[in-house]
Amino acid sequence: MTQSALDTIRHRITELDSHLLQLLAERRQLTQEVAETKIAHHIPVRDVKREEQLLVRLIKEGQQIGLDPHYVTQLFHVVIEDSVLNQQALLAARANPGAALPLNRVAFLGDKGSYSYLATQKYFSRRPGELLEIGCQSFAEIVQKVEHAEADYAVLPIENSTSGSINEVYDQLQHTELSIIGELIHPIRHSLLVATQTSLDKIKTLYAHPQVFTQCSHFLAELGNVEVKTIDSTSSAMLMVSEMQRDDVAAIGSEAGGGLYGLSAIKSNLANQKENHSRFIVVARAPVVVPLQVPAKTTLVISTVQQPGALVDALLVLRENKINMTKLESRPIHGNPWEEMFYIDVQGNVQDGPVQKALESLRGITRYIKVLGCYPSEEISPTKVAAANALTSSS
Asked: What is the dihedral sign for C-alpha 168, 170, 175, 180?
């Protein structure tokens, strides 16, 4: 094939890609109109049966034009997730008309390129208003920025699928009056980032946040004689390596973040678990109202009486009200040795009857209870279809 023929094909591909983008934008606009209808008629955001029917039909149509069912399924999982999240954001904005700001000042850990920075960009891309990023060097500083009205929101990592809960953040929640107003799950893809042309065997010093080292412990064990230096944020690690311009130092962070500092990846997928995700929470000075059409989570903190079975009694209240608990975390109460606070995430809305009834019961059997926030759930489970049925019915 001549270069001219190749250029012609590539030009056609570029035209098709542009056309695909236009169609996706048109589809997104239509889902906004769907959201308006759901608001008017109090219809839930997700219609799983409709999503299943859509995927089955698309799989069949895809097969007829030579597209693999798994390819079609993966592609439209992303499209459906985008549709659901945008509809939820619109419903939430309508339920909180005074909350929209022309400028969203957001505090997060590190600077540009950190995972918190990327999560901040992702979350606020669906919200109106410009974004002003405020990088901080500690979780305490992040919370204080919002408490002192120097920021409107804070984005805080609260747990990771590899390294578990981030205790410092739970401790901050114990002592603040801020409310959790949102959450998001962000994929964490660790890469070994360098500033010069080099190779893995030349690396003598490695910089990263302590949580990152924990998540990549298997890779570190294989490295051998490499000095590991912890640093306050991923962005700080990348900045340091960028400024040093040496072939024997590297940072661990995201390839996208490293690109902002002129770094390139020489090895990727470093985490112990290849499916590595972090859950972030968004906090603000005032709580939000979550429409009942939107799947919601509620986070509580409780302190039980000091007697056997007290925690079990509290958890039984949730079961009796058919409320699903998604997270239970304990942290010591500062100044009270051997006593703990329990942080509980449940699926449910504080405006809904079962959650209200459960809270009323818990107030009667606990020493302390506080709702830290009720917020839209952004854990969008992929739509499942009976792929075998879709395939056989189309043959």
From this structure: positive
